[in-house]
Amino acid sequence: MKQDSQMFGTEKISKILWKMAPPVMLAQLIQALYNIVDSFFVGRYSESGLTALSIIYPIQLLMIAFAVGTGVGINTCMAHYLGLSEDEKADEIGGIGTPLTLFMWAVFAVFCYFFMPAYAKMSTDSAEVIKEVVMYGRIVCVFSFGLFLESIWTKILQANGNMKTPMIAQIAGAVTNIILDPLLIFGMFGLPKMGIAGAATATVVGQIVAALIVMRRGFRKSPALSVYLPDIRKIYKMGIPNILMQSAYTFYIFGLNMVLATFSDQAVTVLGLYYKWQAFFFIPLGAMQTCIVPILSYNYATMKIARCKKTLSLALIYGVSLMMIGVLCFELIPGQMLHVFSHDAEVIRIGKVAFRIIAVSFIPLVTSLTFPVFFQAVGKAFTSSMLTVIRTVFLFVPLGYAFSRIGLNFFWLTFPVTDIITTIAGFLLYRRFLRFTKSS
């Protein structure tokens, strides 16, 4: 493991990225496919179920935010200590992961179980949709321990340069989900017809399968209780920017859903379908963000600033180049993409306009999302968090509300305008970081 992590400071950056990124991309591709398949089968079961998935999506993002954000904090701390050749300290940080994530899971399970009916009623007036939101939401939240554990153990492995095992785990989990979806939703081969509850059950079973695969190599023995408090502070100092960034997605998507609900349930559905497709086309960007964190943290610990700059530059170049595929698809075939999930004429009509306008944001979005990851990896938690807050709190929902007052078609301009402004802010903060680094 130590030998694997040492490549972060010695090998050519492009070689490291091309070595690390393909397994991550493949795993995320399968994950995106299972999200699409999940919505495909639910959409075939009922249109109300598809709306329910769109409403519950922010809650799922909130769980992922805390699970992955904590994992990123552990990953960043471990990579930092590995860069300083303090392997025992790195394992100590990893050992805190399992108890910490189980505590988070328990809090989420209890809170979401009791909060879910109120949340559903805030999002829609349809009794049928409310019922399905509560049913699906309670299952995916109460039984989410697989999601939490897999996220932590995966980040521990990635800190050591092991991308293969997480890839296998995520593929196995996604394939399990894909296979179980139609069986449990429609009650095939003698299984009970569970409807949307079947989709939720398939999701949590897939998460548990993935967790079991990474457990063998990702689990670390718990250290002495005396180190928990100081180490948890270190973990969240590095992880809070990611948690804020992911949590902000939850609140801004919830906010946008509330704005769109003033138009129609179909408008809410369109936003949910966009995020399903977004997960698929953003795979290269997500993979680059995952890969650059340990590289940046490792090299910044040894003050190899040139390698940090090179890592960021290559990640942006690769991200923009690959994101052009998404731009072309959203501009040229939005109708076909929407028809995969829904045959509702109003959903298709709204979605065609929305997809084409949102696609304009894909290129500036690469930089607006990568700059916070860069600052997080080099220990500039406040700067990373500030960019996230600018994008999600001060721009997304306020702009969405303002544009919606003009009309639904104008609402979608929120996406490109937000990411252009965030990119400018990120670039200015990056230049300031480089000047400060040179002077110190």
UniProtKB/TrEMBL annotation:
It comes from Wujia chipingensis. Keywords: Antiport, Cell membrane, Ion transport, Membrane, Transmembrane, Transmembrane helix, Transport. One of its GO terms (biological process) is monoatomic ion transport. This is Probable multidrug resistance protein NorM. The lineage of its organism: Bacteria, Bacillati, Bacillota, Clostridia, Lachnospirales. Pfam families: MatE. Belongs to the multi antimicrobial extrusion (MATE) (TC 2.A.66.1) family. The chain crosses the membrane at residues 20-37, 57-84, 96-116, 136-156, 168-189, 195-215, 243-263, 275-300, 312-333, 353-375, 387-404, 410-430. Its main location: membrane. It is found in: Cell membrane. Coiled coil: none annotated.
